[in-house]
Amino acid sequence: MIRAEEFERLRPLLFSIAYRILGSVSEAEDAVQDTWLRYEATPTRPTSAKSFLSAVVTRIAIDVLRSARVRREEYVGPWFPEPLLSDPYQDPERSAELADSLSMAALVLLERLSPLERAVFVLRDVFAFGFPEIASAVGRSEAACRQLAVRARRHVAAGRPRFEADRTEREELAGRFFDAFKEGDVDGLRELLAADVQAVGDAGGKAPLWGRGAFGVENVARLLAAFAPRFTGIGGIVEPCEVNRHPGAIFRDRDGKVLGAWALDILDGQIQAIRAVLNPDKLGHVGPVADAWAALREANAAFRCHDHRRSTQWGRAESR
């Protein structure tokens, strides 16, 4: 019973470590479950349950990531992590590090690292583990772990994402953005988007996508304004929420089934990037997943019908 209680107390930390190493909710949950099975089978009680369990979940996550790398290299289009709507691990003293390390931008950046570099970076720079504990977790010497940390920081520093520091300001801007989107307000969208904004989606070849993405304020504003009436016209629902501890939204069909998750990067009072996770394989943990292709066909048909009616009305008006 004591072991089970210890494990449950540490489960949020273990999941948060595994998710940041793997970028997958389902794989992180599996890694945590495997960690429990190994802990339960250990004949002697470890001196530190936290150190032992963190080491076990890290080793499992490294092994999973090594095999996942092959799949990700063959992935169709951009690869984004599975969206996480709430981080179970909370630490007020490291709140900023935890939030920034969970963002879509940061997790995509960590894909540049080797599995060992990524694990060392997560344990050291995100969760502040000591090098003796990290060395035990990854099976390397302390000196080697220090070198891995230096290399990881160097890679990360080159593209480290920056975000709006004030959470209230971020949320207020995101609210204005989604209001402008739902109204198809091109001018309103332009005001909120950075000049070099990018809108990129991860569909994995299994859902409709915005081509290879849209870049620049004019292209992105027009893309969103054109998409909005099609989406709302079939009863689509935009549900603003935190996605990976940053402003975003879940998109649902009229029945509440999930079509996608959007995450926003906000800096200097403007939206720098919109990342949309559309691959249905990455959305099952959010809720029942909709048929995005069917929704697209319905939206296009409804829009063509609406456009035809408008053309007919204009024609009648001009003939009078």
From TrEMBL:
Gene3D superfamilies, per the entry: 1.10.1740.10, 3.10.450.50, Winged helix-like DNA-binding domain superfamily/Winged helix DNA-binding domain (1.10.10.10)
Highest taxon of source: Bacteria
UniProt xrefs under SUPFAM superfamilies: NTF2-like (SSF54427), Sigma2 domain of RNA polymerase sigma factors (SSF88946), Sigma3 and sigma4 domains of RNA polymerase sigma factors (SSF88659)
GO molecular function, one term: DNA binding
Pfam families from the UniProt entry: Sigma70_r2 (PF04542), Sigma70_r4_2 (PF08281)
Domain RNA polymerase sigma factor 70 region 4 type as annotated: residue spans: 105-155
RNA polymerase sigma-70 region domain: residues covered: 7-69
GO biological process: DNA-templated transcription initiation
Keyword terms: Sigma factor, Transcription, Transcription regulation
Family classification: Belongs to the sigma-70 factor family. ECF subfamily.
Quaternary structure, from the entry: Interacts transiently with the RNA polymerase catalytic core formed by RpoA, RpoB, RpoC and RpoZ (2 alpha, 1 beta, 1 beta' and 1 omega subunit) to form the RNA polymerase holoenzyme that can initiate transcription.
Protein name according to UniProt: RNA polymerase subunit sigma-24
